[in-house]
Write a structure and sequence with these properties.
single chain, mainly beta, five-stranded mixed beta sheet, three-stranded antiparallel beta sheet
Length: 196
């Protein structure tokens, strides 16, 4: 309740608008020629809006998917002023895929007040991450978005040459072929087997 009450105005309707700048208590009094009756008291707290700094990756946004190993991304928030943080992510399969909806990635990370977090068990996808700074019922503040691209390690299959490997010509016409690959191919040659 309060001890000093200030008039906000009079009205014959059951509601008015108010814009408090500090914690304020409100009540409504009904007055007629017979009596004056006050309602219950409601207190409204005015909190500072949450703030949020810059979200960054502590390593490159290109992450390699190592076979048999856990693939992680380390995220760090420069600063925040809030009662809670919610880490969110979304993903897509391949550069031309459609982004999923933003979700709290419960299998990898929880709502936490830590300004840094490790996201583990990433698979071969494009990921985006952001943080929501929350304070009670105030509007959330949303950080910038960072992207992580998880790619498989480069792989190359068996190299073959056509029509063969032995010639009696100084400049035979050859076709070099590889059975399978992932990544970008770089063709190299050597005349001594050590310098390519």
């Amino acid at each position: 309740g309060g001890t000093t009450w200030n008039a906000l105005g009079t009205s014959t309707t059951p509601s008015i608008s108010a814009s408090p700048t500090a914690q304020t208590s409100y009540r409504i009094s009904s007055v007629n020629s017979c009596s004056r009756t006050a309602s219950n008291v409601i207190s409204v707290a005015v909190n500072p809006a949450p703030t949020i700094g810059s979200l960054t990756l502590t390593s490159s946004g290109a992450v390699c998917l190592n076979a048999g190993a856990t693939t992680n991304a380390n995220l760090s928030l420069s600063s925040y002023s809030a009662t809670g943080l919610q880490w969110q992510s979304r993903f897509k399969d391949g550069s031309a895929g459609a982004w999923s909806s933003w979700t709290t990635y419960n299998s990898l990370m929880q709502n936490t007040n830590s300004a840094s977090i490790t996201v583990g068990n990433l698979v071969e996808r494009y990921y985006e991450f952001r943080v929501l700074a929350q304070r009670s019922s105030c509007i959330d503040q949303i950080s910038n978005t960072v992207q992580v691209i998880v790619s498989p390690n480069a792989a190359v299959g068996q190299l073959t040459v056509s029509p063969g490997t032995e010639f009696y010509s100084s400049s035979p016409a050859l076709t070099l072929s590889v059975s399978s690959f992932s990544g970008n191919l770089s063709y190299e040659s050597s005349t001594n087997g050590t310098t390519w």
